[in-house]
Amino acid sequence: MIGIIDYGVGNLRSLRNAVDHVGLDVDVLTDPEALASCDRLILPGVGAFGSAADSLRARGFEPALRAHAAAGKPLLGICVGMQLLADVGLEFGEHRGLGLIPGKVRPLESSREHPIPHVGWNDVKSQRKHPVFDVPKKNVDYYFVHSFYFDPESPDDVVAVSEYGRIFATVVARGNIVGCQFHPEKSQAGGLAFLERFAAWDGTC
């Protein structure tokens, strides 16, 4: 079963509907103890890094989430959920992340050509093969809503990139952990295929 972690940030209905749509067994989890029964977890997220990290910890999810990751079970972070995988977020101060993929979350630069937030469809360009992002075409469009980006310490953790004023990591992965800056639940067929591949992934590369 896939568990979607509900830690009080964002509307999870569209994500659950997308996972339901591809015929996967899914539950939205409000109790940290329920995470242990899941084969796979999705950590979603919207809003600011600091408040999301605080809410995740205040609701007691961090130990269970770390235990899941340490057991080698697949974990997917989406948008701010992906950013929380980093060591530190620099949104409205410096905030501690989960540190599951080393790196920092930094602000995108705003300009006339690239206003912030970055909202809409954008190319995602593969940098290396990964079971969850194994797309037949080199470039695929996905839907984004964000103002910050994950800057991994190691280029080996970057699976795909996009460009919006600068080139930034769009899909990151290390071991059994993967994250995407775009919203697969809002990215139509490409997003649904991404979720299907995550559901079929055993956490190895």
Automatic annotation (TrEMBL):
The active site is at C79, H183, E185. Its main location: cytoplasm. Gene3D superfamilies: 3.40.50.880. Residues 4-188 form the Glutamine amidotransferase domain. Keywords: Amino-acid biosynthesis, Cytoplasm, Glutamine amidotransferase, Histidine biosynthesis, Hydrolase, Lyase. It catalyses: L-glutamine + H2O = L-glutamate + NH4(+); 5-[(5-phospho-1-deoxy-D-ribulos-1-ylimino)methylamino]-1-(5-phospho-beta-D-ribosyl)imidazole-4-carboxamide + L-glutamine = D-erythro-1-(imidazol-4-yl)glycerol 3-phosphate + 5-amino-1-(5-phospho-beta-D-ribosyl)imidazole-4-carboxamide + L-glutamate + H(+). It comes from the Bacteria. Pathway: Amino-acid biosynthesis; L-histidine biosynthesis; L-histidine from 5-phospho-alpha-D-ribose 1-diphosphate: step 5/9. Its EC number is 4.3.2.10, 3.5.1.2. GO terms for molecular function: lyase activity. It is found in: Cytoplasm. Pfam families: GATase. PANTHER family: IMIDAZOLE GLYCEROL PHOSPHATE SYNTHASE SUBUNIT HISH. IGPS catalyzes the conversion of PRFAR and glutamine to IGP, AICAR and glutamate. The HisH subunit catalyzes the hydrolysis of glutamine to glutamate and ammonia as part of the synthesis of IGP and AICAR. The resulting ammonia molecule is channeled to the active site of HisF. Heterodimer of HisH and HisF. NCBIfam families: IMP_synth_hisH. This is Imidazole glycerol phosphate synthase subunit HisH. It comes from Pendulispora brunnea.
